[in-house]
Amino acid sequence: MPKPHILQIASYPASDQTALDAAYTVHHLDQNPDFGLIEAIATNGGAGVASEVIQACPNLKLIAIYGVGYDAIDLSLCAERNIQVTNTPDVLTGDCADLAVGMMLAIARQIPAAERHARSGAWATASFPLQRRVWGAKAGILGMGRIGQDVATRLTGFGMDIAYSARSEKPLPYKYIPDAKALATHADFLIVTAAATSETHHIINAETLKALGPDGFLINISRAANIDENALLHALETNQIAGAALDVFDNEPQINPRFLPLKNTLLQPHHASATLQTRRAMGQLMRDNLEAYFANRPLITPVI
Ligand code: 8YV
């Protein structure tokens, strides 16, 4: 039986690539593909699919994302064209929550700088400066979906006073503060986990950062678009907030060089879901969705 034709946009770990190549004739954008052959696209959360590519594929029926976020795909165009979209929710929730908590601890206790202090020998002549306590502090979680809830569960173990913003109140034992600025006022640690939508675009801006204040930390494991990066850089450069721990950036992987000299900033390479176990599960789920489509079975994790 001839293998179905798919277009691959992202790159995957070797074992996922081998599995895709075994099941499909895999085309790549830089190899001048025959777009008429393409029935499905495999991509990831960051790369998504450019609308011109969707338009160029007349027989496209499925976009399978290796990632939970679908903000890099025009869903209304897909709906119009009757193209289904799948993502990989649930399997990455715990890892994203783990990294958010790790980043919060790392920025508050300055773990990377403390490590350099110990490793460089500086410890022999000076003790490391005192840092900020995390346990018992006030956390504000912006976006209370699966990942936000998993972060909250972890933070209860730190005895934190937890509040959250979301589109609507949820039956959860945490304080609901719908307004982002009010949440920032509450929070010592403002943790952004919200999916990027037109409603959340730059929801963290100069005003929210002012509300977070000079003792407040910002942690972002969602999407850069949720934050006005220029306003954030200005707030960090002028110590209007205590610090920021960021896994996502405008124009990533090219990070704005203004971040580089900032000591009140922890920079991470968009790797919240990047453990061996989770990436394996994400690859499997993406392929299971592709397989379901080509076998005419219901999709496992459809977005639309
Ligand atoms: C991945 C992500 O980094 O799930 C998402 O939306 O951004 C991440 O899990 C990405 O999709 C894989 O490259």
Mean pLDDT: 98
> What is the terminal separation in angstroms?
29 Å
- The CATH class of the largest domain is Alpha Beta
Q: In the CATH scheme, what's the topology name of the largest domain?
A: Rossmann fold
| Low-pLDDT segments, ≥5 res | none
Strand order of the largest sheet: 8-7-6-9-10-11-12
Bound ligands, each once: 2-keto-D-gluconic acid
Structural class: alpha/beta
Q: Please report the total strand number as a whole number.
A: 12
Strand content: 15-25%
Give a quick account of the main beta sheet: strands, pairing sense, barrel closure.
7 strands, parallel
How do the SSEs run, as a string of H and E?
EHEEHEHEHHEHEEHEHEHEEH
Work out the helicity level: 25-40%
- What's the number of domains? 2
Anisotropy-based shape: elongated
Count of helical stretches: 10
CATH architecture descriptor of the largest domain = 3-Layer(aba) Sandwich
CATH superfamily heading of the largest domain: NAD(P)-binding Rossmann-like Domain
